[in-house]
Every structure is written in C-alpha cells, then in structure tokens.
C-alpha cells in the first residue's frame, strides 16, 4: 500500500460543501447557509470546526454574516465557476448515507486535492441510474477538471462514459467498473482478500463454507466470489452449489435449515452489509454465532466492530482508495499516464468474534 498522506483539516469539508452548493446553484447570492449547529449534525464535525470554516469563507469573500440572522452567500455562482478548472467532481451513486465509508473516501480525495490547489464537488445520487447519467452529462458542461465516479451500475454507465470520452474529460472509476470496457479504475484486491478470508476459515477446520452475495452483478463481488472458489479448489474441497446464495433476497429459511442439519459450518459474505443482515436474521431465528456457524464479511464498515457479535471481515482502506483515485486522475489530466490503469490496493484480514474453529 502506498504511504498514507495526512488527512486535510476537517474544516475543509465544510468549506468544500458550501462551495459545491454554490457551484451547483443549490444556493445563490444572498441565500442563507446552514447554521453552525446544523453543519455539525450534517457533516459530523464540531462547532469549532464549523466556525473556523465559516470564518475563512468570510475572509475569502464567499459568504457574509449578519448578527442575529446567520451567514449568507456573497459570491455569485459565476465567480465560483471561474475557478472550474480547479474543480474535481466526485459522483457517488447508490450508497447508503449511514455508511461512513463514503466519508473516508471523500477525506482521501480531499487530502490529495488540497495539496494541488483543487476543490472537490460532491454529488450524491440515490440508487437511480437515470439520475446518475443525467448528472454526469450536466457536469460535462461545467468545465470541470475531471470526474471521479462511484457508479451504482457500471455496466449501464458505458452509455455515458462514451460521452465523457468525447469531451476529453479525464475520469477514474472507484471500486467497481464495467467488465470488458477499458477504463481507469482504483479498487481493492477483492480476489486475494476473499481468498485469504476463506483460507482462514479452512485452516480453522471448516470444509462446508457457503458464499452469500449482495449485488452479484458488480465486479467486486464477482472477484470476491472467484477468490472464494479458488480457495475452496486449492484446498481440494468439493464445490457445492447448494451452499451458494447469489440472489439479492437471501433465503434465510433454507440457510437456517442447512445450519441446523450441519450442512454448512461457515458463510463468507460478499460485503459487511450482507454479513450484518445475516447476523441479525440468524440470531433472531435462534442460531448461535459462531457456535453453530462462523461468519465472515468484507469491507470492515465502522459499524461491524459494534455488531451484536463483533464481525470478522476483510478490511479495505477507503481513505487510500480516495487518495489514489484523485492521484491517478491528476496523472491522467497532466499527461503523466498512458493507457488504462487498474490499480489494486491491498486488504487486511480482521478477526473478531464471529469465527471459531469447528
């Protein structure tokens, strides 16, 4: 893994949020911006951090204050747009806002951009591909320096990626990408991370190991499934399709029966989201974890260590994912990169309480 860079001060998150709102014309001249307490809750930062950010924005002429009434936009959208060549847009689509991993990605991106005199526009899109496509096409008209894309449907994204290429705007995809389509992408080593997790379960005596997907159409989950399969094959264990749960809706009744009848002793989940759901569903059915089944996730979300039973998982470094994506984007935009690169970042196995020997 490349050496981690120090994170930008937290107040920069508040500043960039206000600047992005102005750039997108969500707030315009003389509009009131959120209060210190509203910013604190919205961005999970302290009031002191917000105060420092707003003070800098006042000094830069972006906002002005009226005693007893709040802070208001001073700079026009046109004035902000003049700096568009120093703006990078990060489009993040289909990610639940309660998951802190996206915040770590943003901090990593900002850590790099801040050292290169660039600002970050952050655009959230709910799990709606049409909105994602329309947003990307709109951003192409704004003169931005480049695009960082975390897509909800990378295969469908090919429809707008062709337009991005025609505009000659550099872009990097994060985490997932359309298979068979040449793009610059930064992701973690999904295959090897999954292989290591399943190998650990095998070393602990598990020979009947299941796999549970969440969004099996996404490239990271396919890579994790391949890592699972290869670990099983290399241990000379038989492949058993009855242990595969590849649908979005997991059949918990069937899984519970398999556990009770001893047909499955461990389950590797394609992500922590699925693993935490499995943990909740199985314990509500009276299944004891890890006594009756060992459970392994992938991602290491912040909430995983605080689950009902602390989740064993594969950790990926979301801040490094953000940093390396911004770095690659700059290499492309400055002509220091050629061809299409797929950068794979390492993972770490994190063992907590959901795994035990057979």
UniProtKB/TrEMBL annotation:
- Keyword line: DNA-binding, Repressor, Transcription, Transcription regulation
**CDD domains in the record:** PBP1_LacI_sugar_binding-like, WHTH_GntR
Domain HTH gntR-type per the UniProt entry, residue ranges: 8-76
Q: Which Pfam families match?
A: GntR, Peripla_BP_3
Q: Which domain of life is it from?
A: Bacteria
Name the SUPFAM superfamilies on file.
Answer: Periplasmic binding protein-like I, Winged helix' DNA-binding domain
The reply to whether Chaperone figures as a keyword in the UniProt entry is no
GO molecular function annotation: DNA-binding transcription factor activity; transcription cis-regulatory region binding
Cite the PANTHER family for this sequence.
HTH-TYPE TRANSCRIPTIONAL REPRESSOR PURR-RELATED (PTHR30146:SF148), LACI-RELATED TRANSCRIPTIONAL REPRESSOR (PTHR30146)
Under what name is this protein listed? GntR family transcriptional regulator, arabinose operon transcriptional repressor
